[in-house]
Prior knowledge:
The protein is an alpha/beta fold. It is 40% helix and 17% strand. The chain contains eleven helices and 14 strands. The chain has helices at 12-23, 40-51, 70-82, 99-104, 106-126, 160-177, 213-221, 249-265, 283-294, 318-324, 332-345; strands at 3-7, 27-32, 60-64, 89-92, 131-137, 184-190, 192-194, 228-231, 243-244, 246-248, 269-275, 281-282, 300-303, 312-313. A seven-stranded parallel beta sheet has the order 3-2-1-4-5-6-11, sandwiched between helices. Strand 2 (27-32), helix 2 (40-51) and strand 3 (60-64) form a beta-alpha-beta unit. Helix 9 packs across helix 11. It is globular, with a radius of gyration of 20 Å. The protein binds nicotinamide-adenine-dinucleotide and uridine-5'-diphosphate-4-deoxy-4-fluoro-alpha-D-galactose. The site of nicotinamide-adenine-dinucleotide has 27 residues, from helix 1, strand 2, helix 5 and strand 5.
Amino acid sequence: MKSVLVTGGAGFIGSHTCLLLLEQGYNIFVIDSFINSSSRSIKKVLLILKEMGIDAQRKIHLTNGDIKNPSDIEHIFKMSYKLDKKIEAVIHFAGLKSVSDSIIDPISYWENNVVGTINLCKVMEKYNCKNIVFSSSATVYKTESNKLLNEENICEPVNPYGYTKLTIERILKNLHSSKSSNWRIASLRYFNPVGAHHSGFIGEDPLGKANNIYPQITRVAIGKQSRLKIFGSDWPTSDGTGVRDYIHVMDLAEGHLSALNYLIKKKPQFIAINLGTGKGTTVLEFIKIFEKVNKVKVPFSFEDRRPGDNASVIADNSLAKSLLNWHPKRNIEDICKDGWNWQVNNPKGYLN
Ligand code: NAD
Ligand code: UFG
């Protein structure tokens, strides 16, 4: 397989995955509406590769397009044929991802995530491209205990965002089960992606307000915010704060290449796979490690629990390990170091 379409490739996880794809010699086509990103991330990806002695300029075709418009997607498939770089697989990151925004504006989430994916699948069918790796999320799970979550756990999302992800999984599963199907589909359920590429050239730079813990920690550490609000000190966890499975974005990116390699070697199938480390970290532990590794202070205060939160969300990642031969290599210290390096070198994100 030589050519891959990456939807949402300018975004946080997409840009890190594009870097790896280009490093491995793939031709990539990227479609991004830049609703939550900037084309500068791709420029930085090319810069990292240049420093590695790889000129990937001609290997990447970036299009400003929206998957809500089927013609934007078809345009790229046509281009790939014209260039004799026929797209053989898709890594599908494009989507809206804020849990809170999805509660305020559910229609946009259904339209963007679900309609966008249906458009994509239709064009893929038309061009007989039936290999897809999809960005799902741990938000599809119903989490009631502190047990590790495996792929068989009950899927019952608690917010519209999670429902869009579960619905897309069902559409993809139906596609695979359809009569003449030879779709190969991996739905990767990410736990909490954080960190940045160790170069400090690319990282997370959301355009709107970022509610997730990591951007909040770095905002406080750099002095843009006076303290971190910790949502809840009375959770049934070791220190009373929420536990999550934080996974380094480069480990996650590697998981996509492993999933792609797995799919093309195997028979047509739909498979859902957790991508997490299997290790939980409390909010207080996260802050302490961040302070120690980066020698900075992160003042905090305890607040009420945030509505819709769970005590503990940790992956059982044994399926990814056995099936994909994928093993997360970076730990929480690496996450803190690399994410901070990105923040310090790019205080204004890609606007620098
Ligand atoms: P991101 O917002 O940085 O990247 C998504 C990219 O898709 C952005 O570049 C955005 O501009 C683009 N996009 C959105 N809608 C589009 C559309 N209609 N057409 C074309 N481009 C569009 O987010 P991310 O953190 O890189 O997440 C990537 C995927 O992983 C998303 O689907 C997200 O739901 C999923 N996911 C993310 C997390 C997380 O915490 N980061 C966790 C689980 C799942
Ligand atoms: N937290 C705080 N203060 C903050 C932000 C978060 O204490 O300012 C706590 C939360 O209460 C939680 C933990 O930090 O205990 C992690 O919260 P995040 O908002 O960073 O992440 P979530 O686990 O709520 O959700 C994230 C993404 C989802 C994704 C999910 C996958 O936002 O898109 O992980 O598990 F689907």
